[in-house]
Amino acid sequence: MRFNHVANRVNPDHFEIVVDMFVQQLGFVELRRNERAVWLRQTGANVDLQLSRSDAGHRDPDRERSQVSFLSDTPEADLRRLASWFTARGLPARIGAYSEQEFYLDVPAAFVDFVVEAMLPELASYDITLG
């Protein structure tokens, strides 16, 4: 088997706003869509993101442990920009930090089981060779 995609859940009331953020702000392209989900890929990536509509009545209380993660030279500033983008569309957003090098964005009304993480590129620099 070969790794293809990961899936995360989004409140259906805010589904299109979340999809718009990935497309308009982070350069994702919509690959396909059905009534319950959309598959997205960021230019240059080879793993896809599936966003699924979920009308679960609860939000995972530990969703900070499940991230859609990005590398950034300015992770906190980039997430603050996205938080402002959501707030301008009527969705309160908050920024948290795992450390001084890695931060996360939560949009509690929209994200069911994940947050968006941004971290410095050196945190993903692994000294191994994959064959």
What is the strand and helix layout of this fold?
Layout: E1 5-10, H1 15-26, E2 28-33, E3 37-42, E4 48-53, E5 67-71, H2 75-88, E6 94-97, E7 102-106, E8 115-119
What does this structure look like?
- With 131 residues, the chain is α/β, with parallel strands linked by helices.
- It has 2 helices and 8 strands; from the N terminus they run βαββββαβββ.
- A hairpin with a 4-residue loop joins β6 (94-97) and β7.
Compact description:
By secondary structure, this protein is α/β, with parallel strands linked by helices. It contains 2 helices and 8 strands.
Count of DSSP-assigned helices = 2
Structural class, by secondary structure, is: alpha/beta
Main sheet characteristics: 4 strands, mixed
Question: How would you write the strand order of the largest sheet?
Answer: 1-4-3-2
Report the average pLDDT across residues. Answer: 94
Strand content: 25-35%
Give the ordered list of helices and strands: EHEEEEHEEE
Helix content: 10-25%
Q: What does the overall shape look like?
A: globular
**Which runs of at least 5 residues are low in confidence (pLDDT < 50)?**
none
Radius of gyration: 15 Å
How far the N terminus sits from the C terminus, by CA atoms, comes to 16 Å
- Number of strand elements: 8
